């Protein structure tokens, strides 16, 4: 196994687990390590996330069904602030988006379903500020996984003060592949035929 490239992927290897097999842990390591190696939006925040729990649990209210739960922690740093010394609401939404997506990816892999999904809806409710330097904990649980849509819920806590900062729900879906459309012209049928032949 390659050396982890971030706190995020490294913590996957050490996080306490419940119901997560070594193969599932390895899969989640590879996903988070690949994401953390990218140079894209918010990577300085995501690379410093630490996974503190990773579980697959039987749902009490729905016997026979499984939910995944993942807990992440980090510190509020300057790059996460708004114009006051509080965590920006956009950063909170970004963390909920990412952490709930990774939590869904764990359950999707357990269920042997594709993990490549796109966001459909993200709802956030803000309850209290998180000051610079605060240790925040993001607790995520899956809610439903269907044929094309799935959802998760998240709570963001100021762990130093035992205070709920924000809560959110995240719905995702399997994205559609764009179809090639040809302009109508006298040779359209012939062109479409050539296109299909080229794909074979």
Question: Which characteristics define this entry?
Answer:
single chain, 200 residues, alpha+beta, Thiol Ester Dehydrase, Chain A, seven-stranded mixed β-sheet, 7 strands, 30% helix, disordered C terminus, PAAI_dom, HotDog_dom_sf, HotDog domain-containing protein, ACOT13, hydrolase
Please outline what is shown here.
With 200 residues, the chain is α+β, with helices and mostly antiparallel strands. The chain is built from five helices and seven strands, in the order αβααββαββββα. Helix 1 (7-14) runs antiparallel to helix 2 and helix 2 (22-36) runs antiparallel to helix 4 (89-110).
Can you describe this structure?
Helix content is 30%, strand content 31%. By secondary structure, it is an alpha+beta fold. Strands 1-2-3-5-6-7-4 form a 7-stranded mixed β-sheet. 25% of the residues are buried.
Give the CATH class: Alpha Beta
Shape type: globular
Domain count: the total is 1
**What is the typical, i.e. mean, pLDDT?**
88
Q: What is the CATH H-level superfamily?
A: Hotdog Thioesterase
Estimated helix fraction: 25-40%
Organism: Cristinia sonorae
Protein name: HotDog domain-containing protein
Family: Belongs to the thioesterase PaaI family.
InterPro entries: ACOT13 (IPR039298), HotDog_dom_sf (IPR029069), PAAI_dom (IPR003736), Thioestr_dom (IPR006683)
Which helices and strands appear, and what pairs or packs with what?
Elements: H1 7-14, E1 17-18, H2 22-36, H3 43-46, E2 50-58, E3 66-75, H4 89-110, E4 118-126, E5 135-145, E6 149-158, E7 163-173, H5 188-199
Parallel strand pairs: 1-2
Antiparallel strand pairs: 2-3, 3-5, 4-7, 5-6, 6-7
């Amino acid at each position: 196994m390659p050396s982890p490239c971030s706190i995020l992927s490294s913590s996957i290897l050490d996080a306490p687990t419940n119901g997560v097999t070594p193969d599932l842990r390895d899969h989640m390591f590879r996903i988070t390590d690949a994401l953390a190696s990218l140079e894209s939006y918010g990577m300085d925040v995501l690379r410093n996330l630490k996974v503190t729990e990773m579980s697959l649990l039987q749902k009490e209210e729905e016997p026979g069904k499984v939910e995944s739960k993942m807990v992440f922690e980090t510190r509020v740093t300057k790059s996460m602030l708004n114009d006051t010394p509080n965590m920006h609401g956009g950063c909170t939404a970004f963390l909920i988006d990412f952490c709930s997506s990774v939590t869904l990816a764990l359950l999707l892999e357990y269920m042997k379903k594709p993990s490549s999904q796109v966001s459909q809806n993200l709802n956030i409710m803000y309850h209290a500020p998180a000051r610079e330097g605060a240790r925040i904990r993001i607790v995520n649980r899956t809610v439903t996984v269907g044929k094309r849509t799935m959802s998760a819920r998240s709570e963001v806590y100021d762990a130093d003060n035992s205070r709920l900062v924000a809560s959110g729900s995240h719905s995702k879906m399997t994205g559609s592949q764009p179809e090639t459309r040809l302009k109508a012209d006298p040779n359209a049928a012939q062109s479409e035929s050539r296109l299909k032949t080229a794909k074979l």
